[in-house]
Here is the input.
Amino acid sequence: GKGAGDEPPPSAPRAEPAAMSTEEKIKDIEAEMAKTQKNKATAKHLGLLKAKLAKLKTELVSGGKGGGGGAGEGFDVSKSGDTRVGLVGFPSVGKSTLLSQLTGTESLAAAYEFTTLTAIPGNLFYRGAKLQIVDLPGIIEGAKDGKGRGRQVIAAARTCNMLLIVLDASKPITLKKKLEYELEGFGVRVNKVKPEIRFHKKDRGGVTFRSLHPQRYIDDDIVRSVCSEYKVPNADIEVRFPHCTVDQIIDAISNRAVYMPVVYVLNKIDALPLPEIELLCSYRHFVPISARTAWNFDELKERIWEYCKMLRIYTKPKGEIPDFDSPIILHARKPRISDLCDRIHRTLIEQYKFAWVWGSSVKHQPQKVGKDHFLHDEDVVQIVKNNG
Here is the structure.
């Protein structure tokens, strides 16, 4: 049967989009996707709809065409410290209590929904590093469609190094799925690794698509249609793993996805019986706590450190003692000396001659190393520059 997604009437081809807000366009596309059967014949059509949807949602967050609603006060929290951690969750799950217990920052907490309307930052000092913890206002369902203050919240969430999704242990665990759905809709990929897709724009030659493995969900046509939606006429796309999805192709072409480490913080755990707590402890990415009594905060801090891939490097000026009070924090599992140089100053690598390193990454103390040397946590580094 004919649906709303078929031919528009020829009478008013241009007036249609202007009248519709971005939210309405999103609703229309979602409705059409819901009523389209999923099979091989409709795969290309669905792929195109997904690409359009992703594009509109990006527009909604960045406040592009339409969308409405300005960025509320408190949303431009300036980034301070080495690392930024966002607290996300439905209203009244105890985020404000957790923030004030971790950082000593008071957010106006009351026992009803929606108390925090602006993003409030606090600082947590841990192992010599300064972590900025931002309490992002309660995300309600429909945030990704621009309802509530949701879209500014998610825009702020995208700038974090990691997120803590705070859940109320006494409420159903399925609420976690709703929050993930909100975040995913805005390009935040929860605990996922960036897929191996090589995307390279070029000047001419059209779109060439290669895959090193058999693919079930995408083919040449689908990839081309996504490229045309994003106005990419010429590009090389190479997929290096099997069973790539249309969503992963859209992420690669649009460059909108943020791959975000997430820890689920189960608050108000003291309301649960012990067997349930033990079960919840066994899940991956879960940390049970009680914000009120500050129970299990050590594990939470340890987990934040691990998920942000934080390493401390101490610098040593020539002929002086290393500065152990203010380490330079690098976010990587295996950072090189060149990453350290970029973190200190972007032109430092051009003047780099070699470095002396003390610590567990070298055999001799000190040892002379080049810029590709891998550093370990708490290494001491003295950089020697070219004079000239």
Remarks:
- The longest strand covers residues 120-126.
- Confidence is low (pLDDT under 50) at residues 8-17, 65-76, 108-116.
